């Protein structure tokens, strides 16, 4: 488990200095970690179960168990998002209405207004691509809630 900061990649890249997995080192380990003997950086097949965008920060889970990908598919995803301009009723109607991505209807979003330019969006089994709708930009992303 890792809190991935912004500007790190969740998936494999040639630039290992930008890979979130490179942060899984003993000096970043919690003092309360009961498995103090395990060194994740030595696990060759360690993959990010819930990849986050480069510009997003939040909870990232790593495992060598590929079957966990399927288990996390149905988790609720939560994103704190920023709007380029003020959040209007028409934008809220779009977000709370039917949204099609890649020609498919995604499950309804739960939208909580945080401020004039921000909201928290929760989606279940959908796609984080919804956060790339023309009027949105994502400064951060906050974990997965099952």
TrEMBL record:
This is Uncharacterized protein. It comes from Babesia bovis. The gene is BBOV_III010100. GO terms for biological process: pseudouridine synthesis. InterPro entries: PsdUridine_synth_cat_dom_sf. It comes from the Eukaryota. GO terms for molecular function: pseudouridine synthase activity; RNA binding.
């Amino acid at each position: 488990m890792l809190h991935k900061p912004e500007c790190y990649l969740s998936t494999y890249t040639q630039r290992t200095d930008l890979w979130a997995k490179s942060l899984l080192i003993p000096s970043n380990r919690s003092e309360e970690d009961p498995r103090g003997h395990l060194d994740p950086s030595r696990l060759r097949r360690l993959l990010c179960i819930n990849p986050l965008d480069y510009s997003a920060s939040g909870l990232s889970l790593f495992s060598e168990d590929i079957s966990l990908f399927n288990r996390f598919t149905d988790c609720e995803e939560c994103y704190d998002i920023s709007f380029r301009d003020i959040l209007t009723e028409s934008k809220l109607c779009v977000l709370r209405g039917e949204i099609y991505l890649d020609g498919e209807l995604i499950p309804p979003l739960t939208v909580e207004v945080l401020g004039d330019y921000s909201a928290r969006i929760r989606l279940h089994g959908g796609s984080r691509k919804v956060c790339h709708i023309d009027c949105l930009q994502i400064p951060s992303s906050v974990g997965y809630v099952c």
